[in-house]
Amino acid sequence: MTIRLLIAAILAVLDLILFSFCPSALAQPVQGGIAGRGDLNAATKQAPPFAMKASDGNWTGLAIDLMNEVARDLGKKITWTEVKTTQDLLKIATEGRVDAAIAA
User: Fold this and answer.
1) pTM given for the model
2) Strand pairing class (59-60; 52-53)
């Protein structure tokens, strides 16, 4: 594994940790947490190599793969919402419109 790939993976994990727990989600505990609810809604934006939208509309990248693994471990599917800017990503997360926001 190259240093560049290792750094990218570490940043993806930090990104997941920082953006998965938006302030509105922490303000009021959800009974049962994410695991006790239906499928997950996540927001992302183009941020290679962390989040990239393929020509078929599917999302790929380090952060996307990590979030897909989390969902798989929870037995959930993810519905992805694309935003254009980091500000939009933060806004949709803090408003509680998504369960997680993933990008770099």
Assistant:
1) 0.65
2) antiparallel
